[in-house]
Amino acid sequence: xxxxxxxxxxxxxxxxxxxxxxxxxxxxxxxxxxxxxxxxxxxxxxxxxxxxxxxxxxxxxxxxxxxxxxxxxxxxxxxxxxxxxxxxxxxxxxxxxxxxxxxxxxxxxxxxxxxxxxxxxxxxxxxxxxxxxxxxxxxxxxxxxxxxxxxxxxxxxxxxxxxxxxxxxxxxxxxxxxxxxxxxxxxxxxxxxxxxxxxxxxxxxxxxxxxxxxxxxxxxxxxxxxxxxxxxxxxxxxxxxxxxxxxxxxxxxxxxxxxxxxxxxxxxxxxxxxxxxxxxxxxxxxxxxxxxxxxxxxxxxxxxxxxxxxxxxxxxxxxxxxxxxxxxxxxxxxxxxxxxxxxxxxxxxxxxxxxxxxxxxxxxxxxxxxxxxxxxxxxxxxxxxxx
Length: 387
Description:
The protein is an alpha/beta fold and 387 residues long.
């Protein structure tokens, strides 16, 4: 009899890592002689990997209180539809991936109405970083029969708070196996061997176009004034951002092109990246490309986080979180100015700085675990189907 697995995730990074998990689950199921069907909240990549989408959550994600308001109703609508579907068609396993508040809601619903269905949290919310809401940590532990962690500190934190955890490693380690070579990507993009190429990653969420793009493109403009033949490469996370990015390229008069397809096509060709904080930071690090990281939210959100929530995170970018030390420069909120980004970027183009960064990347890579994270996660999940 076919086993049914429900996976819930959101945003561009969740869709990417969800697609890697979907593929691993189908591969493992074939090896074990288990017939499965995967239903999901996710995006196009998960659908391409073989999941049946119950709702597309890629374009309705945000970070911050003010920023999340426009997406509240669409998120609640998809949540309601998914919960009703689960009620009427109970799966054999529920898997939650990142996507903090929506997945806590899904998990609570499953615990209340479908208490016998086993649950897994793969890539748990980063309460282990912010540590400001003990209640949220308790909820995550409560809704998870097992937490499969991608960071060692994540596994340690949730185990300390009573969860059954397993460190499986990071899915992106496997993704680097099929990356095009630097020489091939530069040749395809028309970049000469001695030309400086910088990848700009301003946004995977709509709010980031507003708060990140001006600082990143402003920094690029300053760099171009110092390195006239520099070439900027801009991967496109979502098609709907194309017109805004093209308009900004024109406004800032950048020698820049949008690189189609996977972001790895642009990253692999680059000498440096100027990027917003997110999962893409790990992809950049795993390709040994030095990077400058920034993040901004609405001023009111920042004020609430600082003065009411007393939020004091040690680091924002995943490479720094892995090692719990600064291996890539970060600029947050008021410090994320074009001047700071440009200055730090120019420094990272120097040989000594570049070599130091790559040495730190090697240490980070070892901490992410051995290849096969999704395979290990899928095996653990399929073991739970028999419960």
